[in-house]
Amino acid sequence: MKQTLLVAMSNQKGGVGKSTVTILLAGYLHYVKGKNVAVVDCDTLQHSISHMRKRDMQTVGKTDEYKQLMMVQWEHIRKKAYAVVDSSPAGARDKIGELLEADPDLDIILVDLPGSLSSDGVFKTIINMDYVLTPIVADRIVMQSTMSFATAVLDYLKGKPGIPLKDFLFFWNKVDRRASTEVYDAYREIMERLNLKVMETVLPESRRFDKELSVKGKPFFRSTLFPPPPKLLKGSCIDDLAEELCKILNL
After folding, report:
1. Model pLDDT, residue 141
2. Which of 134-144 are b and which e, b meaning 16 or more Cβ less than 10 Å from the residue's Cβ?
3. Inside any domain, residue 251
4. Domain count across the chain
5. Domain of residue 9, residue span
6. pLDDT for residue 177
7. What is the pLDDT of residue 162?
8. Looking at the record's lineage, which domain of life comes first (predicted)?
């Protein structure tokens, strides 16, 4: 049987861009790279991704421009939109099983987890993933919490070869290009000493990440039905992050 990769998007702090990056990565991998993708939205407080899918469907239904764009996309790639399903963290494995039963050819399932470890089932879901992808920002509270949790999980894994989780993959998000690199370099050095892997790709702070489909037909960037448009994709580094992730995961 095909080995489907399970990747959780997780950070214990909110506001670091988990759901946005999940949507953008899923769209790029599915619609541009030709990978078969599904998303499990476990963020029970918001279910941001599933709500966006509903908004996207409603907006496309009301806008001729987007209907035409969807027809062009279908003619070009012959792929339906990737599946988005709601779940609690504790029920994620069951939802994953249902997705794989419906489509055994899935290459990767992205699991968007809530930003709280107190949510039932988060820890169990994390250790049953293949990888955890973690956005980080240069904030002391965020970094201390993130590094403490990651090292605790990795220490827990030692001597337990049967657990699926292979590693945490960190990447910098919302980086102001004009800011000094000293803080980032210092945290990178600390994380290297802790044997925590930081990806090379850095995502910039940019207003484009908030642009959704609109009935007014304004330029969009974030959507569950379309990939990021090439014009806005340039300079966003989402494509670089996806390519680096594919290389690390042998996807």
Report:
1. 85
2. bbbbbeeebbe
3. no
4. 1
5. 5-244
6. 80
7. 87
8. Bacteria
> What number of CA atoms fall less than 13 Å from residue 222's CA on the CB side?
20
Residue 204: count other Cβ atoms within 10 Å of its Cβ: 15
What is the radius of gyration, based on Cα positions, of the chain? 18
Question: Which stretches of the chain drop beneath a pLDDT of 50?
Answer: none
Q: Looking at the whole model, is its pTM more than 0.85?
A: yes
pLDDT of residue 119: 66
Q: How far apart are CA 104 and CA 88, in angstroms?
A: 22
Name which of 225, 209, 216 is nearest 69 in CA terms: 225
pLDDT in the model for residue 107: 97
Q: Assess if residue 86 is contained within a domain.
A: yes
DSSP state of 206: -
Q: Would you say residue 250 lies in a domain?
A: no
Strand 83-86, strand 37-41: pairing? parallel
Strand intervals (E) in the chain:
5-9, 37-41, 83-86, 108-112, 131-136, 167-175, 197-204
CA–CA gap between residue 1 and residue 247 (Å, rounded) = 22
Question: Hey, which residues does 167 pair with through a beta bridge?
Answer: 131
Q: Alpha-carbon distance 13 to 116, whole Å? A: 7
Residue 116 is predicted with a pLDDT of 64
